[in-house]
Amino acid sequence: MIERAIDEGVLDLDRWDIFLVGNGIPNLSFGDGYVPKRCEGLDWKAYAELVGTIDLALSLMYTPHPSYPPFDLAASGAVVVTNRFGIKQDLSAYSQNIICSDLDSDSLLESMKAGIALAEDEETRRRNCQCQWPGQELDRGVRASSPFPDVRSLMFSLRTPPVPYADPWLQPLSARLSMMCRRSTRVAYFYEEPNNSTFRYRAYNMAQVLNEPGDGKVSASYFFLSDADRFDEIADAADMLVICRSRYCHQVSGLVAKFRARRKRVLFDIDDLVFNTDYAHLVVATLGLDVRQKGLWDDWFAMISRMGQTLKLCDGAITTNDFLAQKLADYSGLPVSVVPNFMNREQLAVAAAVFAEKERARFQGNGKTTLGYFSGSPSHRLDYAIVEPALAEVMALRPDVEVMVVGYIDHGPAMRGFSDRISRQPFHDYVNLQRLLGSVEFNLMPLQSNAFTDCKSELKYFEAASVGTLSIASPSYTYRRAIRDGENGYLSKAHEWAQVIVRALDNLNVYEDMARAAREDALFNFGWQNQTRRILEALGLPS
């Protein structure tokens, strides 16, 4: 697309510099030999400095999740061209400087033209940034220019400072190989490319536990499609391969074949019901995707079937809970083990500081009660719709109740009368998210009731519990096993949300005891320090 924009005179290289940002960027040239500037392996500070210099960004993500860069860039004043997918059709409610395009070449070119025109219209661009960016709506001491919210005015007056963050897994291949080769038994985890969600929980965290200093005999590391030129070296060095939620392609198939040729085991790890096309319609419906969108069924059937094909190449599977394990076993006929999602060292270090601060204050705040909804993507809007009428009902009854929404979710008409008691927060990295979770009293976790949501893990519960925040959750398979109603949180059926929230508000006298119980449970069952035996057993290694 960049090449076409240059060839057709849309992008004038006499006026524009091009930066390619990421990892594993190939050597490229455009036009008559123009060589773009490559920016790889940036730490958080360098990334933020670069983003602040960008005028126009092309940031494509082939999922309903918009990803973080479009918002980072728009918040910093850039114009962003990104793609539509599923329910991700229009992001202008967040910033008029974000342009969504269809993915065909002609549409992308037209969006590039619009983006260039807007980027060069400094007055409109500045006005869009100042007036439209949702950070301006953060109405409780939050500066729109700050990457972290000031939570001092929330219910729990936290002074725990933000943690400078950079993705800890962004290391060169040589360092990752060296990490795997430290001990006699070596495990290679594979994921298509690193991210803050599935990769972190199912590969990075696993390796962190196995590499814990001590007398253990197992070491581990993680590898990506960008390492494909070195797959033979990885297969020689490792004793086994764990493929995490990766779609079939010639490179994945080739990696499996290399381990097979060396008579080494290959396992498949997955955290969602996205390997059996029998559930494709349920997944699409649960995510609230527009079934009229061109190519939607092709996209989802392709993704799910490719995931299932990778699974079929493997000797066994690992997943997050017993319900999903049974689905895997029924589909594949393979042996399946369970290793839950769990918190890593970085999360628990911040969680400990937040909880200690709340203990020192005896869980006393500013007299307000804050209900928080933490959304990972726009696909949660149907889940949020379950609880929104109850929120409006409770806020009408209780003037001391406030609501904080984190992420993409937009409020419906029922909440418009309470705008002065609703705050919005942008996305956070997973470490500093612990601070935000610790600033609210109740973490709301509504879920639709079906087989897809029953496969979801407990992560929203234990991340909140680790900082002493209580959760109110739908009784899904995992939530009703993690939460003991009235002891370490609350459970609510779809029609009970207002009633259960009021019950929780009326029980604030036992909040501290319940919060302690929730944290103790989260650390014991979902802390990194208690996962070694489970991981080794799932890998078929001596524990």
Describe this structure in words.
The protein has 21 helices and 17 strands. It folds into 3 domains: 2-132, 3-Layer(aba) Sandwich (Rossmann fold); 173-341 and 530-539, Rossmann fold (3-Layer(aba) Sandwich); 345-526, Rossmann fold, CATH 3.40.50. Helix 17 packs across helix 20. The protein has 543 residues and is an alpha/beta fold.
Count of distinct structural domains? 3
Give the strand tally: 17
The largest sheet, given as strand count, sense and whether it forms a barrel, is: 6 strands, parallel
State the helix count. Answer: 21
Please indicate the percent range of residues in DSSP E strands (runs of 2 or more).
5-15%
Give the C-level CATH assignment of the largest domain: Alpha Beta
Biggest sheet, spatial arrangement of strands: 7-6-8-9-10-11
Task: Specify the CATH homologous superfamily of the largest domain.
Answer: Glycogen Phosphorylase B
What structural category do the secondary elements indicate? alpha/beta
Q: What are the segments in which pLDDT stays under 50 over at least 5 consecutive residues?
A: 132-154
How is the topology of this model organized?
Layout: H1 2-7, E1 19-22, E2 37-40, H2 44-51, E3 56-58, H3 69-75, E4 79-83, E5 98-101, H4 105-120, H5 122-132, H6 173-180, E6 185-190, H7 198-210, E7 218-223, H8 231-237, E8 240-244, H9 250-261, E9 265-269, H10 280-286, H11 296-312, E10 316-319, H12 322-332, E11 336-338, H13 345-360, E12 369-374, H14 381-397, E13 401-406, E14 422-425, H15 433-438, E15 442-445, H16 451-454, H17 459-465, E16 470-473, H18 479-482, E17 490-491, H19 497-506, H20 511-526, H21 532-539
Parallel strand pairs: 1-2, 3-4, 4-5, 6-7, 6-8, 8-9, 9-10, 10-11, 12-13, 12-15, 13-14, 15-16, 16-17
